[in-house]
Amino acid sequence: MTEPAPFADALAPGRVVADRFELKSPWRQGGLSVAFEAHDRERDEPCEVQSFSAGLFEGEDQARAFAATFEPWMALRSERVARVRAVVVEGPNAFVVTDLATGRSLRQFLDEAAGEPLAPARVVEIGLALARGLEDLHAAGLVHGDVKPTSVYVDGPNVMLVDGGTTPSLWTAKDLGERTALIGTPYYAPIEQFGGEAPGPASDIYNVCTLLFELATGVQPFAGRSFLEVFQSKLAPEPPTFAQRAPKLASRGAFEEVVRRGLYADANRRYRTARELRAALETVAGGARV
User: Fold this and answer.
1) Disulfide: which of 14, 142, 246, 289 matches 217 by Cβ 3.0-4.6 Å?
2) 139: containing domain
């Protein structure tokens, strides 16, 4: 892990983190962090620096505990997961430096589609890439923890997962009483996370199947205007069909069943591994009607 540098309050373009990563401009922002496009002076190439608010941690020790959980990510090499280059602690601030994703996020694709579904074959391609990315992560003992439209970037045939490990790392670093806000994104999280379980491989698979449902139909599988309503809709014993959420959409046959299997309230009825999900998607891609 990169040694901590002197703490500075201002986060603005031009600041250099760890005497190496020069911040250019903020380009992604979430509830817990802001990501800057940056320049890696040592390698003379672009990168991303994700900054986590100092208010997120009680002090430098907690920031260090958070940063330490990212060390295994620095050894991961996957074409489908943004590589972690360094983790920096400056006072109570933590920075995670990764490769800069190219293309557009699935959030942008969904916004532009304005409720219209993506082409089924394209959804299968994206699903296969995500399943393979999860296989790489889980084989290394890692968990993404919060797969959603803003954490998937698509550039032509290339699909990349970003922001991996953030939710599990915060879960580890923060006190139990503070974890209720760290279940991931409620629309994409399985019901067991609502009950306090930490993110794991099973939740990653659930995240991906929720996302595939949304890409294939233009709407999320579980409706609700509040945290509680979303949770209640996820308790149904059978996941919704495509037509139940998008009445004008014809059945997608085998592909629809592949997606729905990953969305059961009962975890025992879902895919056990990312490899199982990939195999099911490969069967669909290999000739079944989508």
Assistant:
1) 246
2) 104-285
Residue found by looking up tokens 């309050």 in the block: 9
Element (H, E) at 94: strand 93-98
Residue 114 belongs to a domain:
yes
CB neighbours of 178 closer than 8 A, spacing ≥ 6?
none
The catalytic residues are: 146
The whole-angstrom separation of Cα 175 and Cα 99 is 30
Q: What are the pLDDT digits (tens) for 177-195? A: 444 444 457 889 899 888 7
| Tens-digit pLDDT profile for residues 191-242 | 988 877 778 899 999 999 999 999 999 999 998 888 889 889 999 999 999 9
Return the CATH number at 198. 1.10.510.10
Read off the CATH number of the domain in which 37 is found.
3.30.200.20
Distance CA 207, CA 81 (A): 16
Q: How many domains does the chain have?
A: 2
